[in-house]
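We emphasize that the prediction below concerns an isolated chain of 182 residues; any contacts that depend on oligomerization or on bound cofactors are therefore not represented. The input was used exactly as deposited, without trimming of termini.
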Amino acid sequence: MFCVGVWKKTLFPWSAANGKSEAGLLITIDMRTMIFVIFFSSTFLAVMLAIIWRTLSNEKGLKEWAGGALIAAVGFFMQALRGTLPDSISIVLGSACIILGLGYFYVGSRLLCGLNKGYPWHWVGTAIICISSAFYTYVENNISMRIFFISGISTCFFFASALIFLRNTVPELKKAKDRKST
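Result of the prediction step, given as a token string:
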């Protein structure tokens, strides 16, 4: 593991330099199980956001958030079935769905803050992921570059969404703040 000295003995007593515990057991996390957990979490989020959107139908952005969570859940499901589904579906289409879902979260954030949908960056990101995933799967099999592209585009969407919330106030919260100050 990545532990040394005192940290290794106090915080991680089971780890050793070779990644095995003192009893010789290797601690691993099954990626397919983790992806299924993410799939179920995303599906649950999509259902809850859809319920909230149906309850507060005049609230802008919730429909896009629910749709984004559902699209991302489908992408995670495809990736969890890698090896069962062809790579064109599990890697290329699965990654594209995840990025498209994150893009819809970005669009929903803009709408929630009273902005328009803006430039369709979610489709641009999806196109970049489709092209890069296909290239780094079929032309040059390089998982590091696939991870680089999906991480980079995800980071762009998260950062852009954070900037939206930092620069803009949700209209309902602004009204509540104005009422409180008067």
